[in-house]
Amino acid sequence: MYDVFEKAGHSLFLVGGAVRDRLLGIPQSDVDYATDAQPGAVIDILSDTGIKVIPTGIRYGTVTAIYPGTHGKAEITTFRSSEVYRRGSRFPSVEFGGTITQDLKRRDFTINAMAIDSSGKLIDPCGGKRDLEKKLIDTPGNPDTAFLDDPLRILRAYRFAAKLGFSIAERVRQSARNFSTELSTISAERKYKEFTGILTVEQGERTVEALSMMKQDGVLLKVVPELEHLFIIDGLKQGRYHTGDAWHHTLEVVSQVPPVAVLRWAALLHDSAKGLVRYVDENGEPHFHGHERLAEKIANSVAERLRFSRVDKRALSVLVKNHMRPILYRSNWKNSAVRRLMRDVDDQIENLFVLAEADIKAHTGEYVEKSLKSLQELKERVSRQNMGRIIPAEMGQNLHAMGFEGPVIGTILRMLEEMTDDGILPANPTVDQCFSALWDKQSKMLKESEQSSS
Description:
Number of strands: 13
Number of helices: 23
Strand content: 5-15%
Shape: globular
CATH architecture of the largest domain: Orthogonal Bundle
Radius of gyration: 28 Å
Number of domains: 4
Strand order of the largest sheet: 3-4-5-2-1-8-9
CATH class of the largest domain: Mainly Alpha
CATH topology of the largest domain: Hypothetical protein af1432
Helix content: 40-55%
């Protein structure tokens, strides 16, 4: 790639994360270059040499090159002399031009402000190599300016600290405290992506360290203000099998689940309503009855505000709402109760078990061994359940012929399945038995309505 640009009379430099990871000995997944060539010229240079070009961010000076044969990708960006994000926008306002040194100095952190030229020489105007050795996250210039240019860099500081196991320079943390309110100007999509990056760092303990720093610095509530319902009971004990308060229990659960986005989010929010329902009985023991139902509402609020995908929003809601059910399992559950759990959580059953196991392990004493044993029994019972069709296919066809629409038919069929779980209907009911049960249910509802109105 260097030769291609040099022959065209332009300079090219390997930059950013690719340089950082090379110096750290980390396998490189992203390859980024910077060049003095304007975006249009970059496309011409690559196209003339038979390299496929995708104008992924041509407006912002970035194109993606697809290497012939290997299909490897590289992003090539024209030198930027400035880059500022408008309030609420996902896209920067950029100015092209300048030198490689100017381009590097306007980057987010010193460890990302290095380049390698065609001869292999390291260009490091901001001390990035030094900070790599010190394991330090710092900005090339004044962090106040860096965070005002793009407040999302506040979250990026914690993400890189978690990803690399680095500390954050005190001046950077102080600036994060001072300008954390600027995060309100960042688009929901950018905040979600960056914060999820913090949550899904492979080493759970590093995610916990980052979340703890964010809480201390007043940043966490700027991203997830719904956690205030958890923080209002900071320092207050939970139950006899807990070693700390609800927040520290939450952090332990986060650290124990795998680095899967929906699982880490569910771990973060599963107890988010405990501060709203906490009460202490006459023996001084705290209780949190119904916290999972309110936590589901909180999780839905977070997912809506940060614009989770529809699939992830549903999964998060299901996991938070049902996180207590595997923990409360007892051997005397009927098979119908096991099937109802399976039906309610659907494709999230395995994730629910993972969350429940992490929740149990975040306790102490005899509770842990006993609860893990019960959870294993539930898993085995779930694996033995036959969740095939129990309502005859003709039932749906008859309902359609009667004029019912698809969503309504689905609701009625699920109602009939629940009736089989409850023993109102036999395991494999006939169509006549299904209709009879529906008429009986309707008659009962009408009778109850008449009694309440009188």
